[in-house]
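Hey all, sorry for the wall of text incoming. These are the two entities for the joint prediction.
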Amino acid sequence: MAADLTLAGIVVSLSIILSGLLIGLGKTIGSKRVEHFGEEELVQSAINAALVGAYAAIISIASEVSKGIAEGQTCVAGDALENLQCIFSNLSADIFQLLTQAINLHQIVSYYQSITLEFATFSIQPMSHLSSIQSILGGQILTLQALLTLAQLQVQILAFFAPQLLTFFLPLGLIFRSFFSTRKLGGFLIALSIGIYLFYPAFILIFPAPQFNVTAANLTNLTNTSLYTTVPILDLNDNYAIASRFDNMTTGDFTGDLTLATQQISASIASLSMFVMLAPLFSLLITVIFIKEVTDIFGGEFFFAVSSL
Amino acid sequence: MAYIETLLSDILVTLKSVGVSVSLLLIIIGGLVYGLAQLQPGDTRGKWQNMAIGIFVGGVVIAAIIGAAELIQLVSSNLLT
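and here's what came out:
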């Protein structure tokens, strides 16, 4: 959706004429207050006309700066927001792959942990110690699921804002800023569009993108290795077949491999949390401060505008 | 959006014509008050003259700004480019 700047031009003209009337009437009735209000409106109208006139230049400069921010981390040819959207999109796919492998591993662990060998006089559950690893994996799967949701949320937010900021929010801000009663909201919208377009992606892109290819490869090897594949259903009645499988697993150091896998998943989760959770929060904080400061410069009032929205 | 644009354009045209009328009216009233000021006794004449000049100047300022509105907008819009 693109806002039409003709409207801004009309509102600026309206504002100039209104300020002329106010100055004239102020002089007529001898009211300095009305006169000063008119003068201030005239100055603001001139500033608005300048901003509206420089709209194309502002967009061009913002795009160039944004492309400059994305340099060195190019995921797609485009500005910083498009690149960030692409990075989060790819990251979502990678998280999903890791999640799938963690679920596979969790299934294998749950399977072996629950197996009980029944003998004539006693029964044993040789893998009962895996319950702790099963719990760890369960927690890690939930965390990965939450991180996947957050990454997808970023993709959705960026997909919404990327095409709207310079073509809708900025012109709308210029239109609202042209009129005295909506000036505060207009200033806020201009600051919002510049802040989210430039600052938000810039402060996320300074964080290193998480790399967990090694973890994914190790998990694939672990879940695909013949030593740890689940026992065929036909053999479940055969204690010796199961015992032989357990023997194989001891050779392969099943518990050791699982411990290593949980450690690698933890490292991946930590690196993902930093990029998917902490980086956007940090960037949002900086962006909000920037928006607040720029809102003041553009004659707006941050908390008033936020409450108006 | 087109509706708002038309509405604002209409308001602009109305405001321009109202402004021109008000400006002319103030200039005429200013002249009249100045004329009447000459008929006042010496101790109040200055007050009437000041009022007349204020009304006249108000009318001139309105006419000047309304007349130059498009020029102001045009010049301002090229300030940053």
